[in-house]
């Protein structure tokens, strides 16, 4: 995993030290030495995570964090506060400013890496959801601000897995005001419970006396049902080894004993908010997007969605310096299918064509019905040579097996022609891309149909 990290500290030696540690782990590091610089870099560098020193002259880390978390361009970037003081009050101030985690100087290498990785992983997932969501709202389907607002509300369902009675009670008491809390003292029982009941957050002790907390976390992460449920773990002070394993496993956050009440409630709040935000995005995506952006006949994405999302994908490929390819396919002599067998049979052919298309592209490829009997597949991270292979496979899957149509009454030989292009320059427009693919398609038609043509290099 590689990611962009912004390191902010007013003391050059501290910046150098963190920069060296992160660069050694192949992170892409940029730096800032004061609050204002940090705010600028957070926008211009688009970091995936920010390591932020608390004590800085003029604007301190808390203020920087507050500002980062209050502007839309940067509010989703995780912030780790780096503080010289191991003070619970500092942590609470930081959490209230919106910080996602803390590291204490001198920064422990293992905790630093595990922490950065864990937050980056979460950020990448949220980015993906936000990207799709942004495409949805461009189409007028939902409202980001409304989703965020709703995410901050409502009772959370929290499962506490802890076998020390006083500790369990104290945690439950702290959370009860705004959550529905269930206590389970045995990890095996807890596992049964999460299979039958939905929880928004699981708080789990990693030092259970009678069962294995880490194993429980790993089960949660491997099961489809609980894979996205946030886990907040409670760790014995100094038990870095177990903490690191937990974070590597995908545990979202942690608290060291003795558990500070304010820190606990603040972290629970953060996790619940993020969970709800993600749930809302996912729900919105499934419900409204599917209806408005798919083609009713084939179930593929429609042209409107494709054009809208394609510009986002082009931008992203350009930003990351990754290749991207696109193909246009057009059924050969389709007019004669309609003319000979009628429009309904034509529709059957289109439906079956959609199914075969879907079966032959990857999940990250975007397949859509572009118009009548024209289809487009956008392939992120794919160069033109690889796209050619995909196209050949598609062409064969159409031509090799006749299309059974008209309720099984007829069987038709169908072929298609395919034109391919790829992104040449980062500033290319969607129109240019489509036009080149179309020219390649035109050549495929002219050269005899049932073939794949890549654009001339
Ligand atoms: P070529 O090999 O050059 O592509 O020839 P073609 O016959 O496939 O191309 P042409 O553009 O002449 O004809 C496309 C036909 O597709 C004409 C149109 O009536 C038909 N068509 C477009 N949309 C639909 C649809 O939703 N259902 C059906 N049944 N036919 C459609
Ligand atoms: Mg055609």
TrEMBL record:
InterPro entries: CheY-like_superfamily, Diguanylate_Cyclase, GGDEF_dom, Nucleotide_cyclase, Rev_trsase/Diguanyl_cyclase, Sig_transdc_resp-reg_receiver. Residues 322-457 form the GGDEF domain. Residues 4-120, 157-272 form the Response regulatory domain. It catalyses: 2 GTP = 3',3'-c-di-GMP + 2 diphosphate. Signal peptide: none annotated. One of its GO terms (biological process) is negative regulation of bacterial-type flagellum-dependent cell motility. The modification 4-aspartylphosphate is found at residue 53. Its EC number is 2.7.7.65. It comes from the Bacteria. It holds the Pfam family Response_reg. SUPFAM superfamilies: CheY-like, Nucleotide cyclase. GO terms for molecular function: diguanylate cyclase activity. GO terms for cellular component: plasma membrane. Keywords: Phosphoprotein. PANTHER family: DIGUANYLATE CYCLASE DGCM-RELATED (PTHR45138:SF9), REGULATORY COMPONENTS OF SENSORY TRANSDUCTION SYSTEM (PTHR45138). This is diguanylate cyclase. It comes from Pyruvatibacter mobilis. The lineage of its organism: Bacteria, Pseudomonadati, Pseudomonadota, Alphaproteobacteria, Hyphomicrobiales.
């Amino acid at each position: 995993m590689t990611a962009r990290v912004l390191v902010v500290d007013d003391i050059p030696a501290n910046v150098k030290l963190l920069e060296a540690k992160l660069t050694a782990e192949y992170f892409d590091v940029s730096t800032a030495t004061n609050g204002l610089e940090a705010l600028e870099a957070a926008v211009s560098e688009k970091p995936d995570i920010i390591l932020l020193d608390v004590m800085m002259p003029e604007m301190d880390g808390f203020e920087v964090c507050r500002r980062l978390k209050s502007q839309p361009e940067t509010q989703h970037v995780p912030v780790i506060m780096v503080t010289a003081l191991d003070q619970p009050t500092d942590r609470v101030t930081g959490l209230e400013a919106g910080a996602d985690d803390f590291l204490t100087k001198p920064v422990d290498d293992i905790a630093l890496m595990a922490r950065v990785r864990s937050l980056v992983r979460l950020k990448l997932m949220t980015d993906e959801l936000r990207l799709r969501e942004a495409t949805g709202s461009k189409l007028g389907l939902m409202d980001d601000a409304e989703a965020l607002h709703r995410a901050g509300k409502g009772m959370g369902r929290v499962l506490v897995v802890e076998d020390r009675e006083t500790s369990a009670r104290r945690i439950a008491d702290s959370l009860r005001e705004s959550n529905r809390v269930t206590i389970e003292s045995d990890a095996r029982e807890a596992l049964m419970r999460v299979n039958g009941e939905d929880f928004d957050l699981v708080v789990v002790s990693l030092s259970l006396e009678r069962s294995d907390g880490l194993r429980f976390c790993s089960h949660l992460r491997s099961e489809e049902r609980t894979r996205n449920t946030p886990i907040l773990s409670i760790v014995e002070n100094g038990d870095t080894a177990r903490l690191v394993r937990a974070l590597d496993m995908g545990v979202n956050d942690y608290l060291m004993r003795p558990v500070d009440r304010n820190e606990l409630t603040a972290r629970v709040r953060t996790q619940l908010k993020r969970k709800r935000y993600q749930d809302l995005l996912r729900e919105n995506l499934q419900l409204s997007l599917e209806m408005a952006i798919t083609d009713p006949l084939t179930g593929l994405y429609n042209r409107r969605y494709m054009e809208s999302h394609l510009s986002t994908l082009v931008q992203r490929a350009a930003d990351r310096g990754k290749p991207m390819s696109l193909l246009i396919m057009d059924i050969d002599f389709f007019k004669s299918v309609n003319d000979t067998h009628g429009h309904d049979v034509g529709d059957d052919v289109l439906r079956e064509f959609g199914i075969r298309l879907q079966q032959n592209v990857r999940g990250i490829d975007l397949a859509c019905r572009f118009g009548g009997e024209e289809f487009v597949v956008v392939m992120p991270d794919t160069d033109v040579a690889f796209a050619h292979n995909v196209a050949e496979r598609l062409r064969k899957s159409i031509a090799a097996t006749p299309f059974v149509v008209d309720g099984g009454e007829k069987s038709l030989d169908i072929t298609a022609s395919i034109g391919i292009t790829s992104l040449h320059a980062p500033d290319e427009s969607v129109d240019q891309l489509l036009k080149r693919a179309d020219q390649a398609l035109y050549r495929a038609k002219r050269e005899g149909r049932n073939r794949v043509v890549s654009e001339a290099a």
